[in-house]
Amino acid sequence: MPFSSSLADRVRTVVGRERGITEKKMFGTTCFMLRGNVCVGIWQDSLIARVGKDAYRAALRLPHACEFDFTGRPMTGWIVVAAEGIDTERDLRAWIDRSLEFVGSLAAKTKT
After folding, report:
1. Which of 50, 88, 100, 112 is most exposed, with the fewest beta carbons within 10 Å of its own?
2. Is 74 in contact with 66 (CB distance < 8 Å)?
3. Nearest CA to 56 among 102, 109, 106?
4. Rounded to a whole number, what is the largest CA-CA distance in the chain?
5. pLDDT tens by residue, 59-107
6. How far apart are CA 6 and CA 97, in angstroms?
């Protein structure tokens, strides 16, 4: 199943006001980057949110959140939020804000 273009549009609306956000096609989906670091992405109709290792366990306890594990090796610090967990703009914004907070603490990636 391809990624949800309507969810990508919703994410664009939320991150459109943020400085340093770019959009990039990666791994057959759309990812939104902050200063070169992946922040959030779209997987089918779910949101992939990068929350970091320190916030990972707490994020997993939130409704509709699960490990980001599409290869058999969960990626600690990354969460998949099912469509039900982001059906309101408030819920979507909360997950994006979590990701922006973590990714905002990372050093900017520079092109080599």
Report:
1. 112
2. no
3. 102
4. 40
5. 999 999 999 998 889 899 999 999 999 999 999 999 999 999 999 999 9
6. 19
